[in-house]
Design goal:
There is one protein chain. By secondary structure, the chain is an alpha+beta fold. It contains 8 helices and 4 strands; from the N terminus they run H-H-H-E-H-E-E-H-H-E-H-H. It has 2 domains: 186 residues, no CATH class; 84 residues, no CATH class. The protein has a 4-stranded antiparallel beta sheet with strand order 1-4-3-2, with helices on both faces. The longest helix has 58 residues. The radius of gyration is 40 Å and the shape is rod-shaped.
């Protein structure tokens, strides 16, 4: 096995190991960054919903108190306002969604789906749980969700949701007496659920990963070529010339030219040493013959 082949095999093994470790570390980092980006987007959407609810309670509803005595306005309900506002966002970004998933909602569109009902049950069973983050498959791809419990902590909510008899007549006329009643103080009646797609951030992470690994492979290929050229010119060729010269001298042929002695590296030092040995050997043979 030649010196060049040994060198290239070692270099290839080092590259493969380095590429494998780099791929593992870089993909893990890119994947974590992509998921963190999705979580940030989901949290931002959740905070936007909370801000809309607070704005509705603090600034919108007080302006409608007199009108609410005559007619029920769903726009004055915080959950309705948040759902409607973020519903406008969903028209442009259909994979982003916000829902106040409720087990027994006044508004039928808020009724929890099966997987959302499971989240509400988890919140009910674990009273200290304030947030859940998970992933689920959807028709448009993998999606991340953040869920927070909806808990009745304000007694002012109960008159509208205890019994149909205590609820405002205008609300009963709008929604009917069948749903949204039987709520109790400190009950968890639903969950705020934000869903954000994971496809785009992870696709970007994959593109960044492929670009990085391709660049790394290209750099290795260039380094491989350069090192082989340097190895050939600086080591393999000089040693091959020295080997051929030594073979000729060993058979008594001193007519070949001496090796070049220019330079200060190890190959040049070896060439000078070989030339001295050759001259000494030639003189010794001449003395014997004489």
């Amino acid at each position: 096995m030649g010196l060049r082949l040994k060198f290239n095999l070692v270099l290839l093994v080092v590259f493969v190991l380095g590429l494998g470790v780099t791929a593992y570390v870089s993909w893990g980092l890119l994947e974590r960054n992509a998921r963190d980006e999705v979580v940030r987007n989901a949290n931002l959407m959740m905070e936007a919903a909370l801000a809309i609810r607070a704005y509705t309670v603090d600034q919108v509803r007080p302006q409608l108190d007199l009108q609410l005595m005559r007619v029920f306005l769903p726009q004055s309900v915080p959950a309705y306002a948040a759902t409607e506002t973020l519903g406008q966002l969903k028209k442009k970004y259909p994979d982003y969604s916000y829902k106040e998933a409720t087990l027994n909602p006044t508004n039928p569109r808020n009724r929890a789906a099966d997987w959302e009902a499971d989240l509400v049950s988890e919140f009910k069973n674990r009273s200290g749980l304030t947030e859940m983050i998970g992933e689920r498959d959807t028709p448009t791809g993998r999606s991340l969700y953040i869920a927070r419990p909806i808990k009745i902590t304000n007694p002012a909510c109960l008159p509208c949701h205890t019994t149909p008899e205590t609820a405002p007549a205008t609300m009963i006329k709008y929604y009917g007496p069948a749903n949204g009643f039987g709520w109790k103080l400190n009950d968890i009646i639903g969950a705020q659920v934000v869903s954000v797609p994971m496809t785009v951030p992870f696709r970007n992470a994959e593109r960044a990963f492929l670009a990085f690994m391709s660049s790394l492979a290209t750099v290795f290929a260039l380094v491989f070529v350069v090192l082989n050229v340097m190895l050939s010119r600086m080591i393999v060729q000089p040693i091959s010339r020295m080997s051929r010269a030594a073979d000729q001298v060993s058979t008594g042929n001193f007519d070949i030219p001496e090796l070049a002695e220019s330079g200060k590296d190890e190959i040049a030092v070896l060439g000078r040493a070989f030339n001295r040995m050759r001259r000494s050997l030639q003189k010794a043979l001449q003395m014997i013959d004489g």
